[in-house]
């Protein structure tokens, strides 16, 4: 009977929900008595906020953070009514109805946002509670120092906001030796001492690794939940890989010595070569900077148990692998695997960060969720 090939050309992003839950439990243990507030913004870093949110909920998570109200609405529809969902960008006029309808908690980042929210909730019987986010040195979103005094002194405003969390965000937590960590910790303590007696939150993933004095009552891991390493001592991080990009082999060719491979002819074969064209490119989250040229072979993919280099320029839909020295038979439909435990290495080769790579994966790929 003839062999029937049954593979698809579409790349697949595998998301290991067991590893995700294990990472949640790892941070829960590392944070001691602090609660975990999971960052699932940007569609859970590109992995699918609905399914990821439900998996984290099943692991015990009851507090979530998103960037925008629309993300919060999607998450609420997926995880139900019992969890708290904070919107980091805060309330904006056009999104007020979403906050009310989906019971989302705005993270107040300015005096303007605070006053706008108080006006918006005057006619609402049971308005969502809020968080106050103070800028302690990152100079991104957050209540600036000159406005912090107003919040400390205006008891009527604080009462109207019904605050249930006071937070800030670390800028350099990945480097335990960076002086800004201690500086932000000191500022946060001074500011929070004048705020309502509610839970405090400062630590992102990197902040959890900084130790107990950064944990307070709530920590907010993001990248670490998804298996990403975030510190300068990545060998000490105990998270498990969650994602792999699987690209099927579509064609196998022989290239003669002297011929070029891919766009711009940036790679020239020095000897006769055997190459495999796989179905994933920069439209699927493979950075162009992973391309291999005559002078720079920067990365590789895994075929079976072996690694094979990328040659030629990564294009929109396809990437080319050198399988000349591959020890074994490569059949059409075989899966070349990118990222996984090599996420940080490949991000560094692409001259970017694992956060950017992660959030770009899966825009076009079919996602498969795995429970081990």
Q: How does this model look, in words?
A:
With 372 residues, the protein is an alpha/beta fold. The protein has 2 domains: 31-230, Alanine racemase (TIM Barrel, Alpha-Beta Barrel); 243-370, Lyase, Ornithine Decarboxylase, Chain A, domain 1. It is built from 12 helices and 18 strands. Helix 3 crosses helix 4 (69-79). Helices cover 29% and strands 22% of the residues. Strands 1, 10, 13, 14, 15, 16, 17 and 18 form an 8-stranded mixed β-sheet that branches. An 8-stranded parallel β-sheet has the order 8-7-6-5-4-3-2-9. The chain is elongated, with a radius of gyration of 24 Å. The relative contact order is 0.15. The chain has helices spanning 17-30, 41-46, 49-59, 69-79, 96-102, 111-120, 145-153, 155-161, 179-192, 205-210, 343-349, 354-360; strands at residues 12-16, 35-39, 63-66, 84-87, 105-108, 130-133, 163-167, 200-201, 218-219, 243-255, 260-261, 267-268, 273-278, 300-303, 306-309, 319-322, 335-339, 366-370. The mean pLDDT is 95.
